[in-house]
Design goal:
Elements: E1 7-13, H1 21-32, E2 36-42, H2 48-57, E3 62-65, E4 79-80, H3 82-87, E5 92-96, E6 99-103, H4 106-117, E7 125-129, H5 133-144, E8 149-153, H6 157-170, E9 175-179, E10 192-195, H7 213-218, E11 221-224, H8 233-240, E12 244-246, H9 249-264, H10 270-286
Parallel strand pairs: 1-2, 1-3, 4-6, 7-8, 7-10, 8-9, 10-11, 11-12
Antiparallel strand pairs: 3-5, 5-6
This protein binds 2'-monophosphoadenosine-5'-diphosphate.
C-alpha cells in the first residue's frame, strides 16, 4: 500500500498507455517487499527537459525512458554511462547523490534473457536484422559476450554500416559484416538471429522482414524482440523450420529487473526472476493483459 515512505519510480514516453512496465515493477515489489510504486508518465512533445526537472523537483527515485526520448534525454542528464553513450540510447535514469546518471539496461536485460532461455552468444555467428536503437543494444551485447562474427542486415544499409563502425571503435578485432535484408549469402549455417525491426508488429502483423525458406533452413536460434504478438510471422516460420526461438518479453522483463537493481541496490535471485517471468507470461498471454 502506498504511504509517505513509498519510493516513486516511473516511465517517461510518448505514447505511454500500452506499457506493461508498471505490471512488471509491481510484481518485483510484491516479491521483494520493496515499498515502491511505478507510474507511466506521458511527456508531450517538447516537454522532455521539464520532465527531467520535474524528476528532480519531485524527488522521483528513478525513471525509465522509452520512445521517442531515449536519445534526446541524454542532453538533460548530469552524466551518461559509457555503455549508454556507445549504444547511443539511455533507458534508465539513476540518482548518484545529487546527480542524474543515464544507463542502458536493454543490452544487459537481453543478455540475462538469452542466458535464461539458452540462446548462445559467445563464439556464435550472430545476425542482426534492423539498425535502430534496439539493434545497437543487441550489437553491443554480442561484442561484449565475444560473438564470433556479427552480421547486420538492414533495409537502409548505411545505418547498418554506422553500427558496424561504432562496434569497431570499441572492439577493433570484431568481425562485422553488413548488407541489405536480401544479402542472405552473408548468413552462416547455425546462425543466431536477432530480429529488431518493427516488421511483424501491429499494423504489420502478417509481414516478416525475411521470407526466404533458405534463410530459415540455415538458422538455429531466432530472437524477435517484439513481444506483442507473442509469435510474429518471423518466429512462426523459425519454429516451423526447427529453430529454437525467444520473443521480446523476457528482454523487457530483465531490463526492468536490472533497472530495479540499479535503483534500489537489491538483487533478485535466478529462481525469483524465472518464477516472476513465468507469472508475467501467464498474465500477458493467457489473461491478455496487453491492450
Ligand atoms: P528501435 O529503436 O526500436 O530499434 P527504430 O530506430 O525505429 O526502432 O528502427 C526500426 C528498424 O526497423 C530500422 O532498422 C528500420 O529500417 P530502416 O533503417 O531502413 O528504416 C526497420 N524497419 C522499419 N520498417 C521496415 C520495413 N517495412 N521493412 C524493413 N525494415 C523496416
Amino acid at each position: 500500500m502506498i504511504n509517505g515512505k513509498t519510493k516513486v519510480f516511473g516511465l517517461i514516453a510518448n505514447p505511454v498507455e500500452h506499457t506493461i512496465s508498471p505490471v512488471i515493477h509491481q510484481m518485483i515489489y510484491d516479491e521483494t517487499g520493496y515499498n515502491g510504486t511505478y507510474n507511466p508518465y506521458f511527456v508531450p512533445k517538447g516537454h522532455l527537459e521539464e520532465a527531467i526537472k520535474a524528476m528532480k523537483a519531485l524527488s522521483i527515485e528513478g525513471l525509465n525512458v522509452s520512445v521517442p526520448y531515449k536519445v534526446d534525454v541524454m542532453d538533460y542528464l548530469d552524466h551518461v554511462d559509457i555503455t549508454a553513450k556507445v549504444i547511443g540510447a539511455c533507458n534508465t535514469i539513476v540518482w548518484d547523490k545529487e546527480r542524474l546518471i543515464g544507463y542502458n539496461t536493454d543490452w544487459i536485460g537481453l543478455k540475462a534473457a538469452c542466458d535464461l532461455e539458452g540462446i548462445p552468444i559467445s563464439d556464435q555467428d550472430i545476425v542482426i536484422l534492423g539498425s535502430g536503437g534496439s539493434a545497437r543494444a543487441v550489437a553491443y551485447m554480442c561484442q561484449h559476450e565475444k560473438a564470433s562474427t556479427i552480421t547486420i542486415l538492414n533495409r537502409t544499409v548505411s545505418k547498418a554500416e554506422e553500427i558496424a563502425s561504432l562496434i569497431h571503435d570499441i572492439h577493433p578485432n570484431m568481425m562485422i559484416y553488413t548488407g541489405s535484408l536480401n544479402d542472405l549469402h552473408l548468413v552462416n549455417k547455425g546462425a543466431v538471429v536477432f530480429q529488431t525491426t518493427s516488421v511483424g508488429m501491429h499494423p504489420h502483423l502478417d509481414q516478416s522482414p525475411i521470407d526466404n525458406d533458405l534463410f530459415f533452413d540455415k538458422v538455429d536460434f531466432i530472437v524477435d524482440i517484439i513481444y506483442n504478438p507473442k509469435e510474429t510471422v518471423f518466429i512462426k516460420k523459425g519454429i516451423r523450420h526447427g529453430a529454437k526461438t525467444m520473443n521480446g518479453l523476457s528482454m523487457l522483463f530483465f531490463q526492468a529487473v536490472k533497472a530495479f537493481e540499479l535503483w534500489t541496490h537489491m538483487e533478485l535471485s535466478n529462481e525469483q526472476s524465472s518464477r516472476l517471468l513465468m507469472e508475467l507470461e501467464n498474465l500477458v498471454y493467457k489473461e491478455k493483459r496487453l491492450s
